[in-house]
Amino acid sequence: MADSHESTVLPSGQADAILSPVPERPNTHNSSDDPQASESARFSAWRVPYLTTEVPLGHTNIDGILRFVDAFVSEYLPSLPENQRGDSIEEFAYNLPTDLTIEDQATVGLPRAIELLSSDEDDPMPMEGLDDDAARRAGNFPWFAPSTIITRDPPSSIVPFYDPDIEGAAALNEIRIWVRELFSLSSLFFDIQAQMSSMVRDMGASDDPLRLNAQRLLNEAVDDLLQVSLPSLFELSLDNVQPRAESLADAERHIVTAKEKLFLAEAYLVSQEALLLANGDEFKAHASRYERTRYRDHLRWLVSNFQTARLRGIFVCSSGMGLEPVTRSYDTSEDSCPVCREDLPEEGEIAHPPAVSFACCNKGFHVDCLLEWLFEHFSEDMDCPMCRKELDLDFLGALMEQKVQELQCL
């Protein structure tokens, strides 16, 4: 699975291969003395109805629903603050990307999940005594990860699995590579869909038609990804190359359709970022752009290393702008970054990563070094590593935007 300038043409999967076992319905009668056991029971009890397929689910892909629900309950839901879980389950229940009717949802236990996990603590936690910056950190957006964007190394070269002296080795190796690359795309798009969904839920009004349309597109994208069926790499032979190729072509079409829907939905985030900037909420806008850059950069790296030229062409992430020369506005007597102690760029040099300066002490830092320092202190008071001047979220947002401009993924 796009900004101050608009999203361009472009248009990492926990729900990929094998379902973790669905637990037996727990005995909750004696769990009141154990809060953790009680909490575990609340999370797991509603999954048991999915073990039956005797409900009128029509052509619904039961395995796909199981995988989707399992990932939602075991991974996404526990990551949310307690007071947000009820709303998330309700939205999940009524936006399942399948042909489930409301009656079907009742049969498989989703309303019961809403009852179990919705609490009386839906109001935000009080933030009295916190300054504006601390309050914004305390109310941090669930989709924002205060961490640097990973710089990924090129993958090691892939040795053909089938030796050239084996009959049909070229065709078999091509199919094998195709499977691996489609699997990587499908897994990443599951991750991107989950990230986008979290971001869309946190933007705009819940009844905004544009937001509802974005949510619909994201749900449809998951439905497309759930239709992807990839053969086992251990079942390839010359006898089944043609059927496997036809199956993979069908899987590729589903992934392409999912990609298109994901990045149509992303246009809503772009519009919300513009509104946030216009309304003075610069940090949230920059945080959104930073997170979109994170998953787009991952996609660009993944696709750039594909061996299948057709897939590189379909999923390419292009940018029309290059790096600007760095202006050394900091103290030129200092030639190394105070954090990593490595050299800073010379004047006019195109640096990677570029340098940034502080007005407080006029010291130069690598952008990644300074971002890492600030992210490490994100939940506390952020300050300059040199002079200890306190820095606010707007400064962090501007620094993240500099990284966004450097990577040029949007």
TrEMBL record:
InterPro entries per the UniProt record, alphabetical: Znf_RING, Znf_RING/FYVE/PHD
Domain (RING-type): residue spans on this chain: 337-388
Top-level taxon in the UniProt lineage: Eukaryota
Region Disordered, residue ranges: 1-40
One Gene Ontology MF term: zinc ion binding
Biased composition (Polar residues): 28-40
Name of this protein: RING-type domain-containing protein
Origin organism lineage: Eukaryota, Fungi, Dikarya, Ascomycota, Pezizomycotina
